[in-house]
Amino acid sequence: MATTRVAQEEPVTATAVADGGATTASTSPWQHRHLLDLDDVSTDEIATVLQSASAMKAVVQRDVKKVPTLRGRTVVTLFYEASTRTRVSFEAAGKLLSADVINLSASGSSAEKGESLLDTVLTLQATAADLLVIRHAHSGAPYFAARNLTRTAVINAGDGAHAHPTQALLDLFTMQEHLGSLKGRKVLIVGDISHSRVARSNLWGLCKVGAIPVLCGPPTLMPWDLLKGRTEQPGHPFASVQVEQDIEEAMRDADVVMPLRIQKERQDAGLLPSLREYAQQWQVNSERLARLAPNALVMHPGPMNEGVEISPEVAHGLQSAIETQVTNGLAVRMALLLLMATPQGGLNG
């Protein structure tokens, strides 16, 4: 009952929720109505999300996990692409905060009959959806939804090869949890970076917290369009990003290594000779792991193609934080729903 009283009388914070209302932190600086990517999210706002996620993780680890904070709110997940981790964690996050959660997919919806994205999201808004979590194969779809919704907040759960901000936030949370401050930490991302929305959002987040992102992979899979001008233009947002073609050198003293799967569904033919050759040249395996810094982390956004971008013994080894990422994904998404759907968050801002 204490938590309900705080929700009615004071700004709802993650700290208050985790403490059952016993402690109320200062009002959150989160000011965004929508979360579409991390390019316009400040360093302080990233810190707010990560701090809130830490409190939400404490809730998840309790015997009684459910809290009434978002009772009366409706969260709709709308997925036009297949998903396991992201969709399940958003659903669980909403339910643990006592929101009403409705799950929709393109299959089985009116989209199969030709209904446009605009008509779909307006229909969901008309049914009193407070938050819309959307994944779409086309880059920019969540932005389109956000421009056309006046009462419903939008969270981008992945759009094409463009962005996946909640994955980047849970990755930052996982790194910070294990390494402390990320300022000056070398974070290596290996593989199909050009087609990876995870990599693109991670670049924004890593640069904003002061980490040193290093990209490594075949030149045909490097996002040269995104990185153009980073070394020539003073103040370029990706000025700290490094590109290294030699994986042996790239892994030297890295604090985090994150291999990415080859996204064949987003590629044109001819970018790689074969998956076998890719595995020989770019796979994160035990031999290469020895080049990392002491206590370095192995991460992967999933789904994994074991034996291609990562060897099974590394994926399930002692340095792997891949399962922890899944757990932290739940905490981060709880924190975001809380920040965006309570009076101090973006929904009413």
Topology diagram in text:
Layout: H1 2-9, H2 14-18, H3 43-60, E1 74-79, H4 85-96, E2 100-105, H5 117-126, E3 131-136, H6 141-148, E4 153-159, H7 165-179, E5 186-190, H8 197-208, E6 212-216, H9 224-227, E7 242-243, H10 247-250, E8 256-259, H11 275-282, H12 286-289, E9 297-298, H13 312-315, H14 322-341
Parallel strand pairs: 1-2, 1-3, 3-4, 5-6, 5-8, 6-7, 8-9
Descriptive keywords:
349 residues, 4-stranded parallel sheet, alpha/beta, globular
- What is the 3D shape? globular
Total helical elements: 14
The CATH architecture assignment of the largest domain turns out to be: 3-Layer(aba) Sandwich
Strand fraction band?
Answer: 5-15%
Going by helix content, strand content and strand pairing, the class is alpha/beta
**First CA to last CA: what distance?**
27 Å
Order of helices and strands: HHHEHEHEHEHEHEHEHEHHEHH
For the record, the CATH class of the largest domain is Alpha Beta
The overall pLDDT average reads: 89
Largest sheet: 5 strands, parallel
In helices, the fraction of residues equals: 25-40%
**Which value, in Å, is the CA radius of gyration?**
20 Å
Task: List the strand order in the largest sheet.
Answer: 7-6-5-8-9
